[in-house]
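dumping this here before i forget
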Amino acid sequence: MLVENIKCHVMKAHSTMWIIVRRGVIILKVINKIVAILETLGHNESLGTAELSKILGMPAATVHRILSELNKHGLIEKDENSKKYRLGWKIMNLSYKALKCEQQQFHVQLILPYLKMLSQETKETVFLAVTMQNKVVCIEKVDGQRNLRFYVEIGREMPLNCSAAAKAILAYKSNAFREEVIGSNGFILYTQHSIDNMQEYEAQLNEVRNNGYAICDNEIEIGSKAVAVPIFDSEGQVLSSISLIGPNQRVSEQFANILALMKGAAEDITMKLKHGQIV
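structure:
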């Protein structure tokens, strides 16, 4: 009788554990669907249920249920005229709070005046990028005075294999870190000039370490050129990078002056961080 009771309890325990695991898998699938919908809306001005269903390959009924819940919680908003959805006020509020935290961590208040100075001196767009988990992300930007718009925006991920911003940071990271982030992100090809293999990539990063700066020459957008320099923290670890982007010909013609200004700014910021002169 005792043995039978034990067998019964074991079977019930196994059954309960199977139900818990199954529910966990279902929850993870739902979360992945929610994230996919939010990311897709983030890359588009607005989309309807049918459009999202087609893009994501999800049943329209599933998309509709998720959209209804997200709308209820303010994470997305529905235009009653077009019946399309866009990211909501709560997403913007959360993004703003996250950005403020990152800006504090990476000393943006100290660095921003240098970005403004570089943009004013060169009339080009200048921005600050940092590593977040296995991404390189722009967290601050000063637009140039020539009314030109390029790939970079605050909050945008910078291509690891193409952008000068990413190269200037990853060149000073460990081999293990680079292999991890490249392994999880891969090589994204934007133009025929984009780097598509690890050997060429490591060779460029070696040049970055030798020269103290990185270049993106027609690798993301044809006709554009970016230059980036690293910033180091008080312990000598790479913290971030400052990048300047503009039309290829103009940046090339002013390259020596641009590089001198950028290196001077980066060295000044690094020195202030080293000596604890943090705003």
